[in-house]
Design a protein that fits this description.
By secondary structure, the chain is of the alpha/beta class. It contains ten helices and 19 strands. The termini are far apart. The C terminus is likely disordered.
Length: 382
């Protein structure tokens, strides 16, 4: 049995004004070719099919076209809902198994046997994103923590696959030692949601995870546990990262082979400092392909920012997704409360990187600045 593990497609994702379906389509076409070349029997999609719970029609058409292509080449596809997906929307896909090789699981099953599917010698246990609401409905022990309930449910699934020659767990969840990319929804990757590696049951030959966008193997687990990661760079926190899917071959001892994907539009973050030649920086922009975020670091007294931005826009055109200004080089007396804001922001950036091992995501940076402003405003008006 030859299996391909992918996840976190995020159809309908936008970055500023840019729709990322073009990047996803490019990745999906590669996945189709990999399935043909590697003679894949089964495709596993570990959640976050869509970026929003109510996807637009273009994104729906993109995903359905991909799934029907998988069916047309004789490949079975198992997909589960992620935290970005609507349970009820993914539920509408369940009827597809009547006419195609598409098997959808929308939510954790109260009867765990309903989340088990078999393909010859291979048995797959499915755990769609376990929201607190659904877990509370399944497990009446209200005093248990979220992670305790998830761990217990995993053990129940493991018992369901006992006796099978090969076993896979397909799940969308956070494991404690996983390295986040920074593009995940931050409220769902914190300590409260992190399942300990040792809570992954030993009854599985391979654990195919979604939720974290960075491809990685989870260490200190009793079995093979992998995040395949997103098939394209979701936002600028993933700049410079490569993307993969996992080929898993079940022959005697299962083997895992990451296969690298090409990127349609690579993401770049360029910092232009007041300390360097602006004309030289502009020249370096001309060679960039893909989508670009520019951070202009300049003096607070610089009255040419709008002119510099126009030069940057003229060079990058529609490749420029974000433009930000950061001030540097002035004394605190020159900057007033702006200096304090930037100092706090820098401190938070350091804290976040030391805690999570990645740069502060853009959405958190913007929220931090917004909260800081509201705090000062309320203090001044009180």
């Amino acid at each position: 049995m030859r299996v391909l593990h992918v996840s976190d497609l995020h159809a309908g994702k936008t970055l500023g004004r840019i729709n990322r379906n073009e990047d996803l389509y490019y990745a999906l076409e590669q996945i189709i070719n990999i399935c043909k070349e590697e003679r894949i029997d089964l495709l596993l999609i570990a959640g976050d099919i869509y970026d929003k719970s109510h996807p637009d029609h273009e994104s729906q058409n993109l995903i359905l076209d991909f799934l029907t292509k998988m069916h047309s080449v004789g490949i079975h596809t198992v997909l589960i809902a992620g935290n970005h997906d609507s349970y009820d929307f993914i539920k509408s896909y369940k009827n597809l198994k009547r006419i195609a090789r598409i098997h959808a699981f929308d939510r954790p099953c109260k009867n765990a046997s309903d989340c088990i599917i078999k393909f010859g010698d291979l048995t797959v246990a499915c755990l769609p994103y376990p929201s607190e609401r659904v877990l509370t409905h399944i497990d009446e022990h209200t005093q248990k923590s979220y992670t305790q309930k998830v761990a217990q449910y995993l053990n129940v699934l493991a018992k369901q696959v006992e006796g099978s020659r090969y076993t896979v767990l397909l799940a969308h969840l956070m494991v404690e030692s996983a390295k986040v990319s920074g593009s995940e929804r931050q409220s769902t990757v914190g300590e409260f949601y992190a399942v300990k590696p040792e809570h992954i049951p030993t009854g599985f030959d391979y654990v195919a995870l979604g939720h974290i966008h960075r491809h990685q193997k989870i260490n200190k687990t009793p079995v093979r546990v992998y995040y395949s990661g997103s098939p394209y760079q979701i936002d600028f926190s993933e700049k410079g990262t490569q993307k993969y899917v996992n080929l898993v071959v079940f022959e005697d001892e299962p083997t895992v082979k990451p296969i690298r994907l090409d990127l349609k539009r690579e993401l770049h973050e360029v910092v232009i400092s007041v300390k360097e030649s602006f004309s030289t920086a502009l020249e370096s922009l001309k060679a960039l392909k893909g989508l670009v975020k520019v951070i202009l670091k300049t003096d607070i007294r610089d009255n040419t920012i709008s002119i510099k931005k126009k030069h940057i826009e003229d060079i990058l055109e529609d490749r420029l997704v974000k433009f930000e200004v950061e001030y540097e080089g002035e004394s605190a007396s020159d900057k007033g409360h702006l200096s304090r804001d930037l100092d706090l922001l820098e401190a938070y950036k350091v804290y976040y990187k030391n805690t999570y091992g990645v740069e502060l995501p853009e959405e958190l940076r913007e929220e931090f600045i917004s909260v800081r402003w509201r705090a000062e405003h309320e203090t001044h008006t009180s």
